[in-house]
Amino acid sequence: MSVIKVNNLTKTxxxxxxxxxxxxxxxxxxxxxxxxxxxxxxxxxxxxxxxxLGYIGPNGAGKSTSIKMLTGILKPTSxxxxxxxxxxxxxxxxxxxxxxxxxxxxxxLWWDIxxxxxxxxxxxxxxxxxxxxxxxxxxxxxxxxxxxxLNTPVRKLSLGQRIRCDLAASLLHSPSILFLDEPxxxxxxxxxxxxxxxxxxxxxxxxxxxxxxxxxxxxxEELCKRIIIIDHGKLIYDGGLDRVKNLPGLKRExxxxxxxxxxxxxxxxxxxxxxxxxxESERHLYASFSxxxxxxxxxxxxxxxxxxxxxxxxxxxDIEEVVMKIYxxxxxxHAA
Length: 336
Hints:
336 residues, alpha/beta
């Protein structure tokens, strides 16, 4: 079932170009030269209940503007959107009771009071019953290790601690959809891994639909099966992560350890130039290959029948390489 439906969604801003100097400033008082900036340009997509969707793009692509429209913060210039049966901007008061939002660079917690007091205030705002609130706090505290932080003022939290508290705050009212805009920005590897584990658990255990925007492509690779990529406000790819990794021109890498000595020349003669192995040591060789030209099964079948193999590993193309290829070549796709 689709919980988000977006059709030709567009957001346009108007800015004026300031002239230089005092003379320019005086002229601006009487006549301003406005220019149109299309931040989101006729994008359309749907999100199914329980999906964990990666929404990615470079800086200025329109990701945050899209999220702000989907959460009811910004009014679209044109187009249609429906989230959980609501129009986010026009029905914002009722709509926001069903969603959770985390902006990595901003907090919804009160800066000078203890974390638990912020939680109590938010529970009152969302009309969360006392019994349900206590159960939710207990559950989230266990998963996110919040017990040592509850009586600490928000301003004294580290960035990682504050993000964990913000995630808990966004889930106090058991939202159906969780919007996360750069939730791990600025965190170290340990902090990011903790948040990723939490998101997987929430998605799997409660069926919460999650829309994740991030510049950390490893995060997307570990969490999302489907991605949407936008650039300059336009949707340029909507499809499975596995599918996008099979785009023409993207290469995999095979690495083989042999039980005895072998040369790259000997191995390359076996394939007649279809793949070129390189020597890393007397018994370890590796090569890049395109599945469109030769498959991993073909490579292994040819080698295992003639040489003693100790170990094999095959690496998929990096998600960074995939995204850069889409940006450079303008490849488009749509979810099946």
